[in-house]
Amino acid sequence: MTTRPGYSCALAPTADVVDKARLAERLGYRRLWLFDSPALHGDVWIALARIASATDRIGLATGVAVPGLRHPMVTASAIGSVHELAPDRLVVAIGTGYTARLSLGKKPVTWAGTVRYIRQVRALLNGEVVEIDGRPCQMMHLPGFGPSRPMDVPLWVAASGPKGFTAARELDVSGVVTTGIPAEGDRGWTECALLRFGTVLRSGEDHTSPRVIEAAGPGYASIVHAVWQNSNDDAVDALPGGRQWRAAIEAERPEGQRHLVVHQGHLSELTERDRAVVTAAGPAITQAGWTGDDASIAVRFDQAGAARVTEVVYVPAGPDIPGELEAFARAAASPPNRA
């Protein structure tokens, strides 16, 4: 028998994130994941600490922490601080850092580097001596200056793609975060979180509805950003409105600085240039993520459960995040209509 996954949410660390976290807790969200992109929004660890102090039950998670932004000791110390505030509520997922690194003009960290980083952080949390940058390091906190070691905080891997799942198996982690339904050979984890953007459609809405454009648009725009980042100009120009979008980017910043604007609003809100390319995309904006009515969202939950996903992490966007959270929580509990 298929078990329907739980529902969680992922948010940017904004000034009002505590209010959103309290709402998510009231709505029954299992966990609140926070982005780690310092060039785009506030600090993930400060936000997690604020939420830990302001909530009682909801799980906390990094979605996802990025090697190269912080020394392993800094990450381990931050984990300890949040763990003290919210024991047994924290999960730390770590990945290569796509948007967080690209917005700094850097490539994602290699998988070899990511595996090494996770091992170093794990060893520090265990109280072990570990070599970092050629020198031995150890958490040296005396009683009262930090939690005792070992710290039983789960470290997960953001494992989208074959190399990511290989790394997760190598590290023997208990959980993975992915952006797509895992293939048959990549299932079987104790916990598997699936990131999904989109919006729950109201009666009469479609891709032309202003609310849908603002709520589902940032997810589609992130695909445009990725095409620009990973492909040549022809690939971007082949997208509806892509040529005009690229021209706007090139007019705004010189070559070498365009990464400073492309990823603005990532998975959160639309810039004017992104709104134009989203509007040009037409029905494609409702096909890129989980956009649909309550019953269709419920069907997707069951399909994810059949692939052994244990947790769907919804990424709400647009100007009404509370409304998006309420609608998705309702849809997550709805019976599927397969007629």
TrEMBL record:
Any one Pfam family here would be Bac_luciferase
GO molecular function terms attached to this record: oxidoreductase activity
Q: Which domain of life is it from?
A: Bacteria
Q: Where is the Luciferase-like domain?
A: 13-180
Q: Which UniProt keywords apply?
A: Oxidoreductase
UniProt keyword annotation of Oxidoreductase present: yes
Asked whether the UniProt record includes Transferase among its keywords, one would answer: no
What EC numbers are recorded for this enzyme?
1.-.-.-
Top-level class of the enzyme under EC nomenclature: oxidoreductase
Task: Extract the PANTHER family matched here.
Answer: 5,10-METHYLENETETRAHYDROMETHANOPTERIN REDUCTASE, PTHR43244
What is the protein name given in its UniProt record?
A: LLM class flavin-dependent oxidoreductase
- Organism, by scientific name, is Sphaerisporangium corydalis
